[in-house]
Amino acid sequence: MDVIEELLKSISINDFNIGSAHWVDVTHINNPHSFFVRPTVYRKYLPVVQAYGDNLLPADLQLQQIVVFKSKLMKCHVRGQVLSIQDEDSETTCDLYALDNGCIEKSVKLKKVYKPFHTFNIPTLAIHCQLADCQPQNETWSQKPIESMKYFVGKERARIIIRGKTIDSLIVELHNSCPDDIATMLALCGYSTLGYGENMVSRFPSTTTEKHYFTFNELKVGEEITVRMQIGQSLTSFFVAQVSDYKRYINERDNFTYASKKQQILRLEDVKAGLPVGVLIDTYMKYERAVIKEITVPDSRVKVQLMDWGKILEVPYNSLKPISHQFITYPAMAIYCCVEENQTWDNSLYKFLYPGYEFKITVVAIGNKFDSPYIVHISPIV
Q1: Which helix or strand (DSSP H or E) is residue 9 part of?
Q2: Are residues 138 and 15 in the same domain?
Q3: pLDDT, tens digit (0-9, with 9 covering 90-100), for 307-364
Q4: At 241, is the secondary structure helix, strand, or coil?
């Protein structure tokens, strides 16, 4: 379809160069350091992107699946990605990430979820941003500055000026019909302070050494976190991810896939155990961060472990791409776990192994990357 082809050609993270300006719709606000915009040039494509077909049946619903659903927040049909599935009281609901808006809607009834009319692989149109020169008065954002930002932004179109970039967001000035930019408006009202945050690009060059290996999240004994199941065959060997990390992963995955597609296939002479790579996953045609575990068939096939899922796969050489430094800088999302001994035989806990199931873990003993698991106590979210 010509409209879709035109849209795909127009989508590029490289368009957002530092110093460039863009007209946008602000689609969702978490706080001044986490909000989503969508370029106004995409408005004309939304009717095609959000077109929907038949209702989904429970048997058809899968995690990571792209769907169209009737949004209670946006009051229209929008594209979504399935984050988790719940079956309670003979009714199926799911949590969905609105790809073109940047928000999550929980417990959406299946009767409001549809198959997309078009099956094109279109990246998310929502872009994660944070305000430049805008810091909370305390360590976190309270409700007042968040509500004030929503009031100042309103429903009108806005203009962003790119001031910097992080691994998962653009650092921007945000302007609309207000007398000053939004960061200044918040400061004038006493809800924030003007200044540089830790994510702002320094004016002075740093001399840090470029990493060529993945790092891992480090947890402490007694630490409790909310996680989602990534993959697990038993309570003694499973991989989870912090829910907050998973949301960032969803935002970043399309950017990683886009960047990987632009890379040349990894050279044969560069293939070696321990090398970080991007690997194409055929089932959903996206690239994932991985590390080569071993060469199984010389010049043909390797085993890789997905850093954000924990899963080990055997793949052909031609599915491997070099990985850019920017995608190595944040830790592996997957956390290798095993329940403590007194939970090993608790049959009621096997439901936690369902991919996407959210629960809490408390660290009992420290693990070591993907080599030895964290010993954890698992409990439901109350």
Answers
A1: helix 2-10
A2: yes
A3: 999 999 999 998 999 887 767 877 899 999 999 998 988 878 888 888 888 999 999 9
A4: strand
